[in-house]
Task: inverse folding
């Protein structure tokens, strides 16, 4: 494809615009293909500044919705790595790292891996490292959780950088019970559904599942 190697195409698809897999183009990445509605109007009127407004607006609305649900249900549906996920949904909405597939797989793998290592080191239910300080077991748990999460997500071709924060949140002991982890994953699902719906409503043809599909 105009001298580009498959490895280059894969990297562009994963981190910038997954439609590159189906498109032949030269030069720098083109604007989002098929954009309509408010997203197109913002871009046509202000270019990158319009994109900045869109990213800010989308992030605001989705996190606000998650926060309101957390407030209404009195459950921790919002946690730090969701901020990075929301940002990806509106900053690079066509990239595979921001797809529903990568988001759900990424946070799920991160959560499960961290819980397994918590169990291995006997840390399930213990106070967090924020409260007690770091021990050798906690350091090993955090390091192994992050390493395994990154490795598994690469093998699954499901890169989602915010998952790295999720596995640290769990492995340092901020959320450790099965119930808390279920709420964490519910928060991911709520935000993913809200962000996808908002992107579609505002004119971005975000993929329904994985990049390029």
Result:
């Amino acid at each position: 494809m105009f001298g580009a190697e498959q490895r280059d195409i894969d990297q562009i698809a994963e981190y910038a615009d997954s439609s590159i897999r189906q498109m032949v183009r030269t030069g720098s990445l083109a604007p989002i293909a098929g954009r309509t509605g408010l997203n197109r109007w913002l871009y046509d009127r202000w270019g990158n500044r319009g994109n900045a407004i869109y990213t800010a607006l989308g992030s605001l609305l989705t996190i606000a919705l998650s926060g309101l649900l957390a407030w209404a249900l009195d459950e921790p549906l919002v946690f730090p790595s969701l901020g990075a996920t929301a940002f990806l949904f509106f900053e690079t909405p066509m990239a595979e790292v921001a797809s529903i597939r990568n988001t759900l797989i990424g946070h799920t793998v991160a959560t499960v891996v961290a819980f397994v290592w918590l169990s291995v080191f006997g840390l399930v239910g213990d106070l967090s490292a924020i409260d007690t300080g770091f021990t050798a077991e906690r350091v090993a748990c955090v390091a192994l959780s992050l390493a395994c999460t990154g490795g598994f997500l690469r093998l699954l071709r499901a890169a989602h950088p915010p998952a790295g924060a999720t596995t640290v949140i769990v492995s340092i002991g901020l959320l450790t019970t099965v119930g808390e982890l279920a709420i964490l994953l519910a928060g991911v699902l709520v935000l993913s559904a809200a962000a996808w719906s908002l992107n579609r409503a505002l004119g971005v043809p975000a993929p329904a599942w994985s990049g390029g599909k």
